[in-house]
Structure formats: C-alpha cells, structure tokens
Automatic annotation (TrEMBL):
Designated name of the protein: ATPase F1/V1/A1 complex alpha/beta subunit nucleotide-binding domain-containing protein
One GO term (biological process): ATP metabolic process
UniProt family annotation: Belongs to the ATPase alpha/beta chains family.
Residues of the signal peptide: 1-30
Entry keyword annotation includes Amino-acid biosynthesis: no
Keywords linked to the UniProt accession: ATP-binding, Ion transport, Nucleotide-binding, Signal, Translocase, Transport
GO CC, one annotated term: plant-type vacuole
Repeat is among the record's keywords: no
GO MF annotations in UniProt: ATP binding; proton-transporting ATPase activity, rotational mechanism
InterPro entries for this protein: ATPase_F1/V1/A1_a/bsu_nucl-bd (IPR000194), P-loop_NTPase (IPR027417), V-ATPase_asu (IPR022878)
Location of the ATPase F1/V1/A1 complex alpha/beta subunit nucleotide-binding domain: 25-100
Length: 106
C-alpha cells in the first residue's frame, strides 16, 4: 500500500487495479492471481508492469515475496479491435482455470 500512498490519487484509474490485486495477493491463500486488463489504456498497463514488482507481501514464515511473483497480467489496450479484446478475456479465463486445476502451461 505504500506505493499507492506515494502516488496519491492523481491517477485514479490506476489506483483501483493496484488495490484490487494487492488485496487479493495479501489476504487470499491463492497460488495465482490473474488480472485481465481488457480495454485499458496502454500507459496504465505499462505503469502496472513497472510498479508492481516493487510491492511485496510478508509470507507466514516472515520472508518477503514480490506481489508480481504470483500475478499474471493479460493486457489488451483500448485501441485494439473488439474481437482481440474479447479474446483477452477468454485467455485470462483459460490461464485461471489452468492454474486452478494444477496444470502447467508449456
């Protein structure tokens, strides 16, 4: 949350994805969090990719782990065709189900 506080609320559209994924990472017992940015602006997803590795969570054994280690981002910007944006939604669902059932992507 320190990163969000540092940025302030100047970029309101970026705050919600940060808070959502950060809360899922911190308080869930999941192995993977899949964030699908469908129709997002390109600079917002670039900021997520640059800033997320700095966020950490404390594991039960006291070690620090990067939030990005368990996060999968699927991004398709707003200037892409509708069919491509729709495909990114199905891609995110497929990745989440693959992780859910313990399958490994190769």
């Amino acid at each position: 949350m320190k990163l969000i506080e540092r940025q302030g609320v100047a970029n309101k559209s970026l705050v919600f994805p940060f808070i959502l994924v950060f809360i899922l990472q911190m308080y869930s017992n999941s192995d993977t969090v899949v964030y699908v940015g469908c129709g997002e602006r390109g600079n917002e997803m670039a900021e997520v990719l640059m800033d997320f590795p700095q966020l950490t969570r404390t594991l039960p054994d006291g070690r620090e782990e990067s939030v990005m280690k368990r996060t999968t981002l699927v991004a398709n910007t707003s200037n892409t065709p509708v069919a491509a944006r729709e495909a990114s939604i199905y891609t995110g669902i497929t990745i989440a189900n693959t992780s859910r059932y313990g399958l490994q992507c190769r």
